[in-house]
Design a protein that fits this description.
The structure holds two protein chains of two kinds. By secondary structure, chain A is of the alpha/beta class. In chain A, strand 9 and strand 10 form a beta hairpin. Chain A is globular, with a radius of gyration of 18 Å. By secondary structure, chain B is α/β, with parallel strands linked by helices. Helices cover 47% and strands 18% of the residues of chain B. In chain B, helix 17 links the parallel strand 8 and strand 9. The chains are: A alpha/beta, B alpha/beta.
Chain lengths: 279, 556
Amino acid sequence: MKLGIVTDSTSDLPQYLIEQHEIEVVPTILILEGKEYADGQGISREEFYARLPDFKTAPSTAAPSIGEFSERYEKLLSNGCDHIISIHAAGALTAILNVARQAAVGFPGRITTIDSLSLSMGIGFQVLAAAEAAENGLKAALVAVESARSRLNVFAALDTLDYLRRSGRVPAAVTMLGSALSIKPLIEVADSQIKAIGAVRTTRQANERMMSFLKSSGKLERLAILHTGAEARAREFLRQVMDEISQSVPREIMMLNVTTVIGTHAGPNGLGFAAVRSE
Amino acid sequence: MRMDIVRLDRLRRRPFDGQAVKRLVEAGLTWLKTNQQIVNSLNVFPVPDGDTGTNMTLTMTSAWNEIKDSGEKHAGRMAAMVAKGALMGARGNSGVILSQLWRGFARGIQDSEVIDAASLVKGFMDARDTAYKGVVKPVEGTILTVSKDTATAAEATLAETQDPIEILAKCVSAADASVVRTPDLLPVLKQAGVVDSGGKGLFFILEGMLRHIYGESLDAPISSVQPLSSMNFESAMQEIEEGQDYEVVVDFFPDSQFKLQKFYGKLEEMGTSIQVGEGEGMYRMHIHVPLDKRYEPIDYIMGIGTITKVAMENLTAQMDEIDSKTKSSKLELATIEPGQIAVVAVSPGPGLSRIFASLGVAAIVGGGQTMNPSTKDILDAFENLPTDKVIILPNNKNIILAANQAKDVTVKSVQVVPSKTVPQGLAAMLSLNPDGELDSVADKMIKAMSAVRTGEITIATRSVEIDGVKVKEGQVIALLDGKLIVSSGSVEEGVMAFLEKVKAEEYELITFFYGEDLSHAEANRVADVVRKKYPSHEIEVQEGGQPHYQFIISVE
């Protein structure tokens, strides 16, 4: 049985992996100063983060249409796929999964939609797990996805609270933090929730906390360092990782600029990571 | 001291019961109160807060209030009430240790309906033991040493006499000698040229009891006047007695016939809260008088010297002003669900209170004029919160003991995160997870505290040399993490010198909390000077509103 793998652009998978595993990625929509762009087109991620503080109206985001999904599903099924696994951003946080489910209705019994309960490479690693197990059949792939999700750690240090507040998508508990003093929130993405797990006042403190979150995750099977337009910061963090815990991390560590769709709510100069703990 | 032999004889025939204990407590309190400015002036650091004399007086006053209407005859039970009052009213580290001394004393005599020599000595020994046990790292050359030497003397005297009065007399001289020795035991006292203030306070309490027994007056200090610079009129505002309407302050040069004792005596006939200070030949007299006597002090002093300055202020008007200043605008404190951790923070200023509230604090405790809340003040802040998990942030090293005492007294689960400064408390707040486990959250807060450096800018209250820094009264001084590091001519200079000493270039974020003595404009002006020197740093200015300290600075 040939399995097709579908996800959306919030999964942040690098292009070479998309091609290697023949993954279908449905782009989400970025609405920038009145114009709609498919995620990744029209404005590069680097440029987006550089300009983010200056946009007059806050950029907003939208899910792809049902039609987009139906097209991809149709394409895969008619090209030899027997079944499709469609893994998407946490259903409680975005509408994308819902749209995918509605599209799947048109292909009864052929599509399994999965709520990743996560964001960015938290989705990406589940997609990779499915892709790597795909040749062993649907059941094996589902088990692999489940296993990866249960060992997922996704943390981020944002540079400021302003973008989260503005987005209105984040629970009050996070935005209530320190309105008088300027603070940098620390968040965890888990179980479909964005949880506030603390705050610091300087970038250096944030980096230190991120390192300690990473260290307490133990031995890692997969690791991706995420940032929003802060490549130098991410590089420095990676260098520190190699200095201090090289034996706990996998040989291949990804470093990537997070999708603008997430970045518009997080703000620039953020640093985070998604990791899958070893079994 | 002169002994009234007839009085002594009479006293010896009366039982040393609960009522006798009550009179002695009153005497100890009164003599301490009379001499509280002298104790305050023994502050090692030339900083305007942490007044040991006032703190110990307030602690004793709380003890007195607990017993003043009691007819209890059982000495042990009376002492227990004294200890309870002292415990609740304990302020500042010396106040807390004093309350521990009372607790130990009360335990030592708990079965004694009437105190005899043996039980008195046991009381002193148990007092010493309880006080030492209550401090994690006992330091010698402090009130603890004085309590130890007093207990030793009491024990030794027991071999010679069965008369409690004689034992008390020996204790008073032992305490006196012990206080004199404190600079030999604690180097920083020697450097500052003072004896230990807490020890001196304890001495005054004991001496007051003896003076009462001997029939000596308790209303005017016998020693010479205090230095001008240590006069503190604000603490006199803490308890304005009924009937006193005006505060009168007169600066004068006395003529050659001037006799201090007679001067005090005359003033006592006019009013209360008498303070006399002297500096370079000039005397300053402070008194509270009723409306109809408001010109008497001036008329009297005109007859005995040359007046250079007179100040008169309506006390009720002053009190109203202080009241309205302390009535803060409604704070938006965090609402706590049962099972969550509630944080109680001690805040010295209204701006700082707002910041603590915005960071998720559930209750704020103000410091009062001495900046040191009592055990009860802290307890009251959290006893009624709908949770039994509490973390206390004292934000001042002189409040840590009172916080620990509150923890010991309550049935709730309490952790004291021992923040010594406001910036440490703020850094700790950022690690708060209200739904976390109490001990691990407290650990995280302690770790977070250690990352921030604290600067404090204030005006020196005395001339002194400490840790190699020469300070002249009136100069601006800077403290780094509680240590005096530099003196300078202006606030701006002090700030820049502090930033140099703390190696600010190695940090990223400098936050200035300006106090009530500094205007918003001036604070921003200084911040701009800092921004020019450190262009790649984040500089923040926030209104703290704290008294005494022009700036509290956090460097991280």
